[in-house]
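Suppose you are handed a protein chain with no further information: no name, no annotation, nothing but its sequence. What can you learn? This example shows the usual starting point.
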Amino acid sequence: MRITGLKINNFKRFSDLSIDGIPSTAKLVLLIGGNGSGKSSVFDAFDYVSKFSKVTKRESDSYYQKLKNKKLAIEIEFQKGVIKFISNIGSQEDGGYSESPLVSGGNFIGRSSLRIVPRISFSKINYDGKTLTHDIDAPKSFIEFDTRFNFDVNKFTQDINRAMRAPIFRGESADTLKIFKEFIEPFNKSLSNIFGEDNNTAIQIAEYEEASINTPPKLIFRKGKSLINYDLLSQGEKQVVITLLNFIVRKEQLANSIYFIDEMDAHLNTAIQYTLLKEITENWIPESCQLWTASHSLGFIDYARQAEHAAIIDFDQLNFDLPQVLIPEPKDNLEVYEIAVSKDILGRIFDGMNIFFVENKDNHHYNSLGITKTIFVPEKNKQAVFFKAKNSEFKGIIDRDFLSDKEIEELEKDYKNLKILRYYSIENYLYHPDNLAEYYNKKNKSFDKEDYLKSLIAAKNEIKDRLIIKLMSTRTSYPFYKEVQQEKNPKKKWYTNSNENTNFTEKIAELLNSDNLEDFYKVFPIKNNATQIPQRQNIPLSELTKTKWFEEQIKQLIC
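A reasonable first move is to predict its three-dimensional structure. Written in structure tokens, the prediction is:
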């Protein structure tokens, strides 16, 4: 169940709002914008539809209408159909609704921002099938306190008890390993993914206490050597526990649903914001479900911008009284970060600094050099770094891969903020004979450079034919000159199935066929090859970044 478009009229803040073009592949839809920008109005619309479809308690329409003498309308477009809700309140007709059926089996599950429960108490609602399927424990409106966590805790402990005791009446032993894997292991694994595995800072559920006549159930967590009752956790820790337990208890309801939750990032630092959204999107939201959440936090924005299955909708600076049409932001649009950190602040923080985006986690190697007024920031791949350097004031460093000297010269001329390594990847620098020679010399250890070079050549010749076969197809994945506006650029053909690409492929093949180090080493992927050579084994890469040779090579590149 995936939403691809939304229209709301005369609803809450908006006179006429449309969100169009949400990809059907979007598992996550992140609404960004400042406080009061109207993000929560979308969740109110989902809440309205949800309560109407389930025939549960809800506010009167006057709560949702912007103008009291005009109909409100909600239209939601799915992959496989459209649902419409039109209120007749305020017109001359009798009150009522017209609707199209929900997409088969479809479901809306929502959580408001007011859901931090300071201490666990008894759930006022007893468990039965309708509690979950009809969302009976939901608050009346999205501005009221959401205490469903109490129900979640009570059901979680009851389900464990039921699983432990049921076999007794069949004369069987409880399968404790199965119970652990169903209830405890997923919970603790997610806590580790979010908080990390440092025992002194991360929390793990360690035990629970059943509810009695006078006391509600308890969840006990281990942190370091201490056992801590849920009531004593920090607000950020409670936020994560409440969110995760909701997914654990209601996982069966997530299938074929829209799950929407407001301000999931409250009380969390940037790193945990990122890991929380990643964990939920990738490990708890099933493929048949779509997660909608709202935020103006850096961690959430950063994850959504990098994730291929996410769409970002920017609500900032909208005029609520005029028709507004929003579409997902391009993934290479760095301005989405301004919701979390303004340009003025960034300008002051990084005033006079050179900011280079680099591929994957190579930033650790570059930053270890401590180059004055220079910061290296990670990006997920070559394409992301390239678009950063092409479309902003930031700079980028990408791997050479299978590029010729001519291409490097032309690319750096066309894209002034782009730098390209002179060897295949940063590992080629670290395992270069000259770099290893300096490393071994500093350690007062012998290094046979000639023997190492012979081993390199042998390893290269062993795989060169396989590399050459894939050269042309590999190059077609490179992002250069693929923009629509550059359709007529003759250099576009360098990275397509064309004669131009064939010519460059032949030049790369010539380099690979050479046994001269400064020819083949430019285009030889050493990271995952030649690993059996003894001279490069058991050396931490962090040690190989401390040489003068490596520092000079990188400084020469970025100057």
